[in-house]
Amino acid sequence: GFILLVYLSVFTEIPQDIAQGINLLFFLPIALLSLVIHIKNKLTDLKLVGKYLILGLPCAVVGSYVAGITDVAVLRKLFGIFVLYIGINQLYVSFTNKPCKKGSDSK
C-alpha cells in the first residue's frame, strides 16, 4: 500500500487525498482476505479484534473527516513527516536490537 501511495502521489498528477482513497480501495479487500486466512489458521484473537473495531471505526471516521477538510499540501507534509519518523525508527531499532542466539529464548 505504501509503495502505491508514494507512486500515485509523486509520479502522477493525482492529489494526495485521492491517492489515499485509491490506496484504501486496494488495501481493504487484501486486509479482509488476510483476516479470513488468519482466523482460519487460528492466529487471531477475536475478542481483541472486536475491541479494535469498537475503537478503530470511530477514529477512522474522524480521521477521514479531518483529512477531507485539510489542505492537500498539509497532508503531504504530514505524510512525509510520518514516513520519515517510521524510517528513522526502523533504522534505530535495527541497530539497537541484538539478534538472538540460535536456540535461546527471545524473552
Automatic annotation (TrEMBL):
Membrane topology of the entry: Multi-pass membrane protein
Protein's UniProt name: Permease
Keywords per UniProt: Membrane, Transmembrane, Transmembrane helix
GO cellular component, one term: membrane
Subcellular localization(s) per the UniProt record: Membrane
Transmembrane segments: 18-37, 49-68, 74-93
Main localization category: membrane
Lineage of origin: unclassified sequences, metagenomes, organismal metagenomes
Record Pfam families: TauE
